[in-house]
Amino acid sequence: MSLLSVRGIVKEFPGVRALDGVDLDVEPGEVHCLLGQNGAGKSTLIKVLSGAHSPDAGELSWNGERVELGSPVDALRLGIATMYQELDLVPGLSVADNIFLGHERARFGFTRIAQAREEAARLMARLGHPGIRPSTEVGKLSAAGQQLVSMARALAHDARLLVMDEPTAALAGEEVDNLFRIVGELTADGVAVVYISHRLEELRRIGHRVTVLKDGRTVGTGLDARTTPTADLVALMAGRKVETVFGPRHDGHARPETALEVANLTRAGEFEDVSFTVHAGEVVGIAGLVGSGRSELVETIFGARKADRGTVTVRGKPLGPGVRAAVRAGIGLAPEERKSQGLLLDLPVVHNVTLASLGRYAKLGFTERARELDDAGASLRRLDLRPADPRRIVRTLSGGNQQKAVLARWLVRGCRVLLLDEPTRGVDVGARAELYRLIDELAATGVAIVLVSSEIPEVLGLSDRVLVLREGRVLADRRSAGLTETEVLDVILEGSAA
Ligand SMILES: Nc1ncnc2c1ncn2[C@@H]1O[C@H](COP(=O)(O)OP(=O)(O)OP(=O)(O)O)[C@@H](O)[C@H]1O
Ligand SMILES: [Mg+2]
């Protein structure tokens, strides 16, 4: 008898049948991976499992008994805990409050705040981050820090089934290892895990079985996560045979003229004395752990954070303070946290794409010239937006499709210097290959690109040069040709310049 059995689940939203008859069986102690392209219905399915959406048809059984999940509390009572793709933490509350919000023990068990804090500290230590204090306000943590809090919250429930929707999207190597260690401990105790990721190598590492969704239907289930050939998985996801799974490949288009020059840029506590230049047509990758100052650095170059010291020069002209000056000088930033920094969730995709600038930083109006609308449509088609309707409200798009909308904006705008912070996060294999090609094409037209990514093969494959940042300092600035993943990792982890 399966722990959880899903039969014929259907879920419709206005204009979209997100789930169209999904079947799935989850056994105790297994890591069951869900695969599928952006918009295939993975997150919608897990929202049905967590009681957040009620299905229009189909049934769920738990230990062989038919169940109805009217709300997330029902699911938690059964023993199903969920880590959502879009974090649902309360930024103004502390780490401990977020972990125990709505928790049974918050009502009955914890008589004192101190007890909740102790338990929260224990969970953060188990996750390998004793440094994240229970009293810290969640809004002050980085994206990775928040992801860890969300994980701690799921662990706090002693669930029998843990559902994780792209948990590693915001994490770098070390944190991923921690997460996988915990998944191993849980499954050894008989806890089942439903795991969603676009990174096939993760499925190989921790997965037992795989179910593939396409257009809201189960197209393959019970497949062996270790031995099923990648080509077969990709073919199931895409619904056709895909000749090659493209990796990043970059030709090298650097021109003699300098596009961006960063000199001694410093923000106390974040990064110090960072200096580098990027030529027109050059792609410079920035590698480093989460917390090494990578995002803070690109946001400072973009004028969204104020530098304590140092200068940014674009095509020989010193850049004034603020985002407007940066945008005027031709700098674009696709930020790491698309939800809080990149998108206006209640506007249609097309307006997000044609926005003159980032909503949070500079309040500019949007232009609706027909040409721009056409360009938006073209960029979105290129990135394979699904559903392919630019009039849809961004909030109703799947996570990967929201990411495509952020990227499309800067493709339309045409920048001279493009700062990309984790651009492929949550983007499926096919769209990712297209994105790699686009980055290469932009470089070929002379755009200078700074690429922050936690995936070292991606950084090495796309960049002409790699900077390694560790604790806010540049420890290496090397040509990527000939550099290996291990060499980069050595610098990231040990700090020994290779
Ligand atoms: N609240 C909503 N209202 C309208 N449509 C929605 C809503 N939530 C999801 N959808 C649509 O349902 C479909 C499935 O979305 P879902 O988020 O489940 O995809 P996914 O497989 O998780 O994709 P990704 O890999 O990008 O995260 C998409 O077409 C999406 O636009
Ligand atoms: Mg999703």
From TrEMBL:
GO MF entries: ATP binding; ATP hydrolysis activity
CDD domains, per database record: ABC_Carb_Monos_I (cd03216), ABC_Carb_Monos_II (cd03215)
Gene3D superfamilies linked: P-loop containing nucleotide triphosphate hydrolases
Annotated SUPFAM superfamilies: P-loop containing nucleoside triphosphate hydrolases
SMART domains in UniProt: AAA (SM00382)
Domain ABC transporter: 4-240, 254-496
Leader sequence segment: none
Highest taxon, organism lineage: Bacteria
Keyword tags: ATP-binding, Nucleotide-binding, Repeat, Transport
Entry protein name: Sugar ABC transporter ATPase
